[in-house]
Amino acid sequence: MGACHADGMSELTTALRGQLPDDAVLTDPDILGTYAHDMASFCPAGTPAAVVLPRTVEEVQHTLRTADELRVPVVPQGARTGLSGAANATDGCVLLSLVRMNRILEINPVDRIAVVEPGVVNATLSRAVNEHGLFYPPDPSSWEECTIGGNIGTASGGLCCVKYGVTAEYVLGLDVVLADGRLLSTGRRTAKGVAGYDLTRLIVGSEGSLGVVVRATLALKAEPPRQLALAAEFPSADAACDAVCRIMAAGHTPSLLELMDSTTLRAVNEMTRMGLPETTEALLLAAFDTPDPAPRLRAVGELCEAAGASAVVPAEDFAESELLLQARRAALTALDRVKGASMIDDVCVPRSRLADMLDGVARIAAEHSLTIGVCVHAGDGNTHPTVCFDAADEEEAHRARVSFDEIMALGLSLGGTITGEHGVGVLKRRRLAEELGPVGLELQRGIKSVFDPHGILNPGKVL
Amino acid sequence: MGACHADGMSELTTALRGQLPDDAVLTDPDILGTYAHDMASFCPAGTPAAVVLPRTVEEVQHTLRTADELRVPVVPQGARTGLSGAANATDGCVLLSLVRMNRILEINPVDRIAVVEPGVVNATLSRAVNEHGLFYPPDPSSWEECTIGGNIGTASGGLCCVKYGVTAEYVLGLDVVLADGRLLSTGRRTAKGVAGYDLTRLIVGSEGSLGVVVRATLALKAEPPRQLALAAEFPSADAACDAVCRIMAAGHTPSLLELMDSTTLRAVNEMTRMGLPETTEALLLAAFDTPDPAPRLRAVGELCEAAGASAVVPAEDFAESELLLQARRAALTALDRVKGASMIDDVCVPRSRLADMLDGVARIAAEHSLTIGVCVHAGDGNTHPTVCFDAADEEEAHRARVSFDEIMALGLSLGGTITGEHGVGVLKRRRLAEELGPVGLELQRGIKSVFDPHGILNPGKVL
Per the database record, which ranges form the FAD-binding PCMH-type domain (chains A, B) (predicted)? Predict the structure, then answer.
């Protein structure tokens, strides 16, 4: 199915243009190239046959019907901020970009739902619901660019998850165009519902391999008070992980609980001149968005001190709180600059194993003589070891790739998962088989066949 | 597949006993009869060939392998407190009761998880985790009897859902014995994870039709403060529904928000002599489990008054709060006594349509000259219209059945679902097709075939 001949291509574009406006089908090779991949490193991208930019459900249906008939692969795309290559082109494919379907169709404060098209940018939705006193929690780092459709495809998370969970928990119902062009409606507008198997949740995180989401009904929360943060400095990553365990075991539910290791802190300092303490081996940020966060922050500060924190700095006000969080927000960009390129892993472990995970990553970094900075959504046990490397140095790039894989194996050995929130894409396919085991993999393949018998939807991704 | 000949039966029990202890296979017809059905009305139960009561995963595997080879249907059961007939016997089936697999294997306060066997009773788990300062929210009415396996099978809810969601949101990972006896492990022990399609969520709510859950990893929350309630009396159901909408639109997140109509109030009074106000047409109960609930209760009380409440009674202390909630807990038993039998529906609508739903149910009751009391998990829009009837009066029982069905149709017409938390079972199968539509139904059947190619698992349920 992968390759596509010149004739096939023209047959494809002719068929597509039959029911799509001229500006919805792009075939200029230079333009196609700019759509060919997402933000993942080490993920090869093929040469697409066309980019289709539909504005309506019917246009998506026509595109899929056409591709299915001609057995042409279709790769659905949002803003291509993904980190696993799930949106990368395969040779001869149609890149189906949903970015023009970007309307917010409804915001309902009584039912606490929003109905949106897939191309709505996360930040646009977040701000729109805020105006109604509502809150759409999922906040991936790329929230100013990434689309809700992309978030659903990868089941993405963010800083909020320790309290508010991931995208999956906010998707109530979906309209999905199937591989053969038929329209499937899943789920509901109601707060609860158990009618039949949960196809909604099956689609979430399926990276466009089961169908193309064209409309989503999302659950919203009431907008909480602004969060207030504290920072705690630790003489070792172990001590910081111990603090995380104490905080969670004591029954706290912070709105944010983030850990940065010394490599990350140095990189952030280098880039921002924030003057973070250079001798600190780990920094923990905790925040609460309750009406009266001060007593909770005090209690968390005391737990940090009990775990060996060398300093605890509670924010005096929201402005100071924001300043503390900026260090965390700058982390990935800063690590990217260390050696020019970086590769961000996404291994989630039970939070009781966080210290073992960080020890193991440090060992892997030393063994391969690599710089690996680790940011952690500590409340979730979701680590983002970020391997810094010089892309021009082939040998170093190879070591980076190997260490990336060893980090996944380490996570699995600690009872974790190879991906907490970034998805499988091309990058983690091999390790997925290991995590799922043969029985799970066989069932997943069976489900794929039910939804997409000709295998046209994002082939070579996930499974 | 349904029926089973005398020879088949003895071949079956011989094969079962080959690898099961004597006391794990029951065939005495009198005993089998006591296992034949759950608590749903109007759901026929067949005659089982055997009851199997395994104590280990291997015993479940042997049972399923045997049944699959002999093409004998298997009906998994928990405490049989279900309300949709999902646990009812089909002719010649093996009733696979998981009640003896009732160990709590792990409670981990740092990872906030519990690992349990399916036969653990909900209340047993709830109390066990409380001792660690933890909280397992799902609280179906039958929580003192129902099992976690049954809760997972039906994706059950409870009073807590307005704030804490349903069972599905607390299931992180499952061990599942497939129809052919193979063991599938799904999901994770971690707070997050997006590795492959979400098979965990697919199993939850599948009523034993995709596999038999033999172990579950459950997410826990930190134990919240005790909840404090208020009661508000309204001159009409409409006014009470208006209050619900005002409360939710104002951004409150109560830990409980329950509505009872006048029929229910009268029945509760009759049974308990609680002295609830007889002239009240609807009673709303709201509670908060935040550290300082008083200001929130005051605000909610004011919203109730603005919506026309004739009286607002905040509890002075926790004991008084419990007393208010007892009225709600007594509701279903009380309605059951009105005419000797009752049939509880479970239609969930967007909460903005609650008033229309209650109006419609009152109209249906009048049209059929029936008593229908309505309890509502109002924060979820999840109504439980309970049709009271005299089971000895065939004509009245028929009208009860018809009205039950009309209530589902009404819910669908209001953008709702036929089941918020009780499941489909046998009772709602016909209406399920309507809710899912032909495309959804076809995909659900396809998934069923992937998991259970010979169709031995709980045939005739759900789909």
Answer: 44-223
